[in-house]
Design brief:
The chain has one domain. It is α+β, with helices and mostly antiparallel strands. It contains six helices and seven strands; from the N terminus they run E-E-E-H-H-E-E-H-H-H-E-E-H. The strands form two sheets. Strands 3-4-5-6-7 form a five-stranded mixed β-sheet, covered by helices on one side.
């Protein structure tokens, strides 16, 4: 491994002309209590800490081509594969600056009931590009998450006889 990615003080070095494109986050053990409302959505999305930390690390690493962006993937417990693509926007920079490395303020708002999990999802979607790469019961509509996104959207969809 070290022959391909030599260790250097503070991290590692990529081969010439290579950049870091993204990171895959495995299952998370939530160390905090769940919010009273929308606990299922909270569990099936990026935690504020993991998302903010991943993007901040990418920004500071010097290994990412900011003109291409950076993706953070998460496999949810119910089987969805989500991708947040950081475009290194000003809005994202502001969130990281106000949140610091751990997203603690967002988590306090979520856990205190001052921010719904759905509103957190929608704010993430407008800060970068959020996509459902593989669907699941909660994330049942694939593609880009937009302002009209709803959990369990397909299950709640009203169909007419003409469909």
């Amino acid at each position: 491994m070290e022959q391909v990615f030599p260790a250097v003080p503070g991290g590692f070095r990529l081969p010439e002309s290579q950049t870091l494109a993204g990171v895959y986050l495995g299952p998370e053990s939530l160390a905090t209590p769940l919010p009273e409302k929308e606990a299922d959505l909270y569990q099936q999305f990026f935690s504020p800490q993991s998302l903010v930390f991943s993007v901040q690390q990418a920004r500071e690493s010097g290994l990412v081509d900011s003109s291409v962006g950076y993706s953070v993937f998460r496999q949810t417990p119910d089987g969805a594969l989500l991708k947040y693509h950081s475009t290194f926007s000003e809005a994202e920079a502001w969130v990281i600056k106000t949140e610091g490395a751990m997203g603690v303020n967002i988590d306090k708002l979520l856990l205190g009931g001052h921010l719904s999990a759905k509103d957190f999802v929608l704010s993430v979607a407008v800060t970068g590009v959020l996509t459902v790469e593989k669907s699941s019961p909660l994330w049942d509509v694939g593609g880009v998450v937009g302002s009209e996104w709803l959990p369990y959207a397909g299950a709640n969809r009203i169909t007419t006889d003409s469909e």
